[in-house]
Amino acid sequence: MAKIYYDKQADLGIIQSKKVAIIGYGSQGHAHALNLKDSGVDVCIGLHDTSKSVAKARAAGLKVSAVSEAAAWADVIMVLTPDTSQAKIYAEQIEPQLMPGKTLMFAHGFNIRFGTIKPRVDIDVSMIAPKGPGHRVRETFEAGGGVPALIAVHQDASGKAHDLALSYAKAIGAARAGVLETTFAEETETDLFGEQAVLCGGASALVKAGFDTLVEAGYQPEVAYFECLHELKLIVDLMYRGGLNYMRYSISDTAEYGDYTAGPRIVDSRTKDEMRRILGEIKSGAFARKWIAENESGRKWFEAERVKERDQKLETVGAELRQMMPFLDPVTTKAGD
Prior knowledge:
Blueprint: E1 4-5, H1 12-16, E2 19-23, H2 27-38, E3 42-46, H3 53-59, E4 63-65, H4 67-73, E5 76-79, H5 83-94, E6 103-106, H6 110-113, E7 124-130, H7 134-142, E8 149-155, H8 161-171, H9 174-177, E9 179-181, H10 184-199, H11 201-216, H12 221-230, H13 232-250, H14 253-266, H15 269-284, H16 286-296, H17 300-310, H18 313-323
Parallel strand pairs: 2-3, 2-5, 3-4, 5-6, 6-7, 8-9
Antiparallel strand pairs: 1-9, 7-8
Helix pairs in contact: 2-7, 4-5, 10-11, 10-15, 11-12
């Protein structure tokens, strides 16, 4: 059974006694920084001089410094830049500022798990990984709640790394919802697998295949969009609240019967075999090596895929329909956004 910690088991005073540098001010960075600040923690944002986020962070009342200066100032350094930029930032701007007694933190274990960052042995290395996007981390905190998080310790030079990480989790609101014990390897491998096989890759491919099947059979693209993409949120919301049982309780008997009869035909033993191969590539480091190489070679394939996916019929039809539904607060994105 997983070990889960809550507010009463965390000492907020530990992180309140530390100076914390948040490296990066994106989705997670802004949420961590503002939640920590509201919890009485001394925070500084580490950004490069030309970052568009400098003005945003200062407008939010936060101190901003160059990454190396923030790292030198801080007792605790939380790295919240994209996975692909962390190793370079660490080697050039953070590592030279690390001294015994400091703590290096992450919200995702990618670079530790695959060895692109190898911290010196006399510092603490830990992780607090909220299981939700940054805007939800901030929104739920302001509403008095929190997003659950994972906690892991990679190095415990001080003997107090876990206590400090748990204190950090409390300060960003995660301990209100629950902080689950894990390891850097488990967090990284399950996170990548979930993204690829289910949440992003799997769900996107299923939606596209369903839409294409209906359109190719002569049905209106607008109807296909509603059936295969728009209504997916309604089903997922039911699962989110009460699992598969509540979803099935809430839908019609006809839909439930179709769930039992058609589902195993779509996701069958071949699908699970492919999932196992995907997991194997993640665990072996093959996926990480391929993704790192893609970035080092200029991301040509990745950017081309972005453009292709953006321009598909499912997306153009959906954009038109969403503009007629202002209650959705629709957004429009371009390749590279």
